[in-house]
Automatic annotation (TrEMBL):
It comes from Pendulispora brunnea. This is AAA family ATPase. Residues 123-282 form the AAA domain. It holds the Pfam family AAA_31. Gene3D superfamilies: 3.40.50.2300, P-loop containing nucleotide triphosphate hydrolases (3.40.50.300).
Length: 394
């Protein structure tokens, strides 16, 4: 078997097949069988529209329908604007005139490089509340910002259809909704995706539902899974918020996630619900390493401390986020991450530590008090020093 990636050509005569084979000889192996893509890392199909346009367009639509994440190149003898438009509407992502074999080779090479780049997948992480009001969205938004500060590419997805709050947390206007992204996956590449999403200055991109309750799209579980898998090829971290309960959509998102942060507070109801959630996760077949307990608004002197929570849940609590309610509310009201309002907040510190652990970044070294004092003194000029430097001064 050839080590070159396989590219499929449909609808071509023997002569045209020979021409395309010659054009792609250095970079790809040409096949007539769509099934051959199953053994190939590429998902590229060329459809020749030259001799039977209607049949070729039907082939484009069928390939788009049957093969996930396929990249279709329409091939013809001339650039007819009407034909190009119809091919794109049918599902082609590129249009090439076969007379120029170099152009076809360049397009296929570009698609192969793009496919190799997109085959690297990021981490899908769901922030799941054990009950309402535990601060899951606060944790999700500020964790996304903390990951961005570590130069990770982060997408924040708000799955709350009608009352999502992620856009408000970051004072962003809605752009493409989850439904829009789901409908246009076959047309999107990385550049187009990034240009169509809301983007906060602190780093994260955001996709959510429109402001208007009537305009909210009903995203199916299958669409949600497809959007997340697509997004994971373009971002290092995809943070999912807005999951409530265990409906079909939430379970699909949790299934697609490689990590779940189960958020609770230090009260009996949150603890009891967290235990019930862990039981559901177990029945769903999730590995213990997939789920982590995150105690939000943590207070060390509360009756339910880390040890008590770990003992009750049967799972070690490794993550706490300190209570800094005033800073969190101030940040929300200004549409900013907590880091921007209170950079020394203990909540920022704890979420930063979680981000570092997720990315494998070494913990920040504690500041050396002696070095800080020396550094501060060194930057201050004594009156005598100023006088020596400016002898004309009196």
């Amino acid at each position: 078997m050839s080590e070159r990636p396989t590219v499929v050509l449909l609808g071509a005569t023997r002569e045209r097949h020979a021409s395309v084979t010659a054009a792609l000889e250095p970079i790809a192996f040409l096949s007539k069988e769509v099934n051959s893509l199953a053994l190939s890392k590429s998902r590229i199909v060329l459809v020749d529209l030259t001799y039977d346009l209607e049949r070729g367009l039907r082939a484009v639509e069928e390939v788009r329908r049957v093969i996930a994440q396929v990249q279709i190149v329409a091939v013809a003898d001339a650039k007819d604007p009407e034909v190009i438009l119809r091919a794109m509407r049918a599902g082609a992502c590129e249009f090439v005139v076969l007379a120029d074999g170099r152009e076809l080779a360049a397009v296929v090479k570009l698609l192969l490089q793009r496919g190799a780049r997109e085959s690297r997948t990021g981490t899908i992480l769901s922030v799941f509340p054990s009950k309402g009001g535990v601060g899951a969205t606060t944790a999700a938004v500020n964790l996304a910002c903390a990951l961005s500060r570590l130069e990770a590419r982060v997408l924040l997805v708000d799955f709350e259809r009608q009352l999502g709050a992620v856009l408000a947390f970051l004072d962003l206007a809605p752009r493409e909704s989850i439904g829009d992204v789901a409908k246009n996956l076959h047309r999107l590449d990385r550049e187009l995706l990034l240009s169509s999403l809301a983007h906060h200055a602190s780093g994260p991109y955001v996709v959510a539902q429109p402001d208007s309750l009537e305009d909210g799209d009903a995203v199916t579980a299958a669409q949600a899974t497809e959007v997340l898998q697509f997004a994971a090829r373009h971002f290092d971290y995809v943070i999912c918020d807005g999951l409530r309960g265990f409906d079909e959509l939430s379970v699909a998102v949790l299934d697609a996630s490689s990590r779940v942060e189960l958020v609770l507070t230090q009260d009996v109801i949150a603890l009891k619900n967290a235990k019930r959630c862990l039981s559901v996760f177990q029945r769903l077949g999730y590995d213990k390493d997939k789920v982590e307990i995150l105690i939000n608004r943590y207070q060390s002197k509360a009756p339910i401390d880390v040890a008590a929570a770990s003992d009750n849940l049967g799972l070690e609590v490794r993550c706490t986020v300190a209570n800094d309610y005033p800073a969190a509310v101030a940040a929300l009201n200004r549409g900013l991450p907590i880091e921007s309002v209170a950079p020394r907040s203990p909540a920022v510190r704890d979420l930063g530590e979680l981000a570092r652990r997720l990315t494998g970044t070494p913990p920040e070294k504690p500041r050396n008090l002696f070095r800080m004092i020396v550094s501060t003194l060194a930057t201050k000029e004594s009156p005598a020093h100023v006088a020596r430097r400016t002898p004309e001064a009196t």
